[in-house]
Amino acid sequence: xxxxxxxxxxxxxxxxxxxxxxxxxxxxxxxxxxxxxxxxxxxxxxxxxxxxxxxxxxxxxxxxxxxxxxxxxxxxxxxxxxxxxxxxxxxxxxxxxxxxxxxxxxxxxxxxxxxxxxxxxxxxxxxxxxxxxxxxxxxxxxxxxxxxxxxxxxxxxxxxxxxxxxxxxxxxxxxxxxxxxxxxxxxxxxxxxxxxxxxxxxxxxxxxxxxxxxxxxxxxxxxxxxxxxxxxxxxxxxxxxxxxxxxxxxxxxxxxxxxxxxxxxxxxxxxxxxxxxxxxxxxxxxxxxxxxxxxxxxxxxxxxxxxxxxxxxxxxxxxxxxxxxxxxxxxxxxxxxxxxxxxxxxxxxxxxxxxxxxxxxxxxxxxxxxxxxxxxxxxxxxxxx
Length: 385
Ligand code: PMP
What we know:
By secondary structure, the protein is an alpha/beta fold.
């Protein structure tokens, strides 16, 4: 497997440790038939888990009926998905569909420029994608450095710091771009009231508040969107990952005046709003509602967090996050070793930082798998001879 991979695929992600063959719910199987509990789901992409019958049905029915025909025409799944997303957000707005999180943030950045202002503020440690604009918004220096010069006009401030935000935003600021919880930085949760303050400060200066909910949205934190827990409404929200149910689908949503920033000719993408991915998106939303997955994510997430804390394990310093986006913090930089041991034991977890393990399982994760994971967790820190 390694040799074929080395010869044919670019080394963007490091040497793969598994070749996966199939999945069902929160379980995946490798080429040798070994089963794993997927507590990572391809970095939070899959809300309903693997091979959910609702996705299989929606996608196969739609592709048999009509695939993509471009964006000069509209289709019912795209219209319906846009309406459903706005309905769930509870605010009037408009949706632009694309294919990934980075692309959703590129659109947000271009919308910010259309305000006529050029300055954009984002956060240190924030992650918004790998294309040049999204990378510019990203506040992780090692990822940015090899690609300088990046897009001009973007600055980064400490995450969760209201005073820094007050100092950075002025009447020339087009937008403040921020994640409700910084996923890639290690599930960093800002202090209570931070998003409310961000809303107040951006509104005072007429700057857009852009929330990147690519990771936190679509039920992962226990509500449809994380901003709903803060009781605010952003001007722009970006989505991807969970919304597609495993298919490439992203969305940039403008609320209020931001809904009409784009005019014909400003922006577009060939596969955005294709009916097959939109049908998958509708199946995701329907199933989250019909299977009660918001409540489920919230309660199983709390159970995992409480279970991890109750271990009082010397290697573990704490657990943070919301719903099924959790970071288990470690006293030492042993996350890679622990994740490797977990994989051997049949659990896929993500060493997102040297001292943080991230869990972002499908929302359908069963309680029994969650409990078994917590029970097995101490063994991942044992020294193997
Ligand atoms: N924003 C956030 C918050 C993310 O976590 C990610 C992916 N980890 C992205 C944007 C980029 O998404 P994509 O990989 O689909 O471009």
